[in-house]
Amino acid sequence: MTNAVTLVISIVSLSTSIAVFYWQRGHGGFDLARLLHADLSSGEAAKACDLLGTLLHPLPRPG
User: Fold this and answer.
1) In 10 A of CB 21, how many CB atoms?
2) In sequence order, what are the residues at sequence separation of 6 or more whose Cβ sits closer than 8 angstroms to the Cβ of residue 59?
3) What's the pTM?
4) What integer is the mean pLDDT of 3-25?
5) Backbone dihedral region of 42: left (phi > 0), alpha (psi from -120 to 50 degrees) or beta?
6) Torsion, CA 51, CA 54, CA 56, CA 59, rounded to 10
7) What whole-number distance in Å separates Cα of residue 8 and Cα of residue 6?
8) Phi and psi at residue 62, in whole multiples of 5°?
9) What would the DSSP string read from start to end of the chain?
């Protein structure tokens, strides 16, 4: 009886650990993407992207 309870507790603990690992792994990637997006879409990087975009894809002239 004691061995069965220990086995069940061990399986539940292992399952919980695996679930938390994958949850944290997914959120870590999302946080990194959010930080990179914020970094690249503000300040000097945004100005450089705007300049490069204007040089590579100028607006068509009316007429």
Assistant:
1) 10
2) none
3) 0.46
4) 92
5) beta
6) 180
7) 6
8) -70, 150
9) -HHHHHHHHHHHHHHHHHHHHHHHHHHHHHHHHHHHHHHHTSHHHHHHHHHHHHHHSPPPPP-
Residue type, 35: L
Structural tokens at position 43: 């300040």
Q: Cα 51–49–46 angle (5° rounding)?
A: 110
pLDDT in tens, 24-57: 887 777 788 888 888 877 888 778 877 888 888 7
- CA–CA gap between residue 58 and residue 63 (Å, rounded): 15
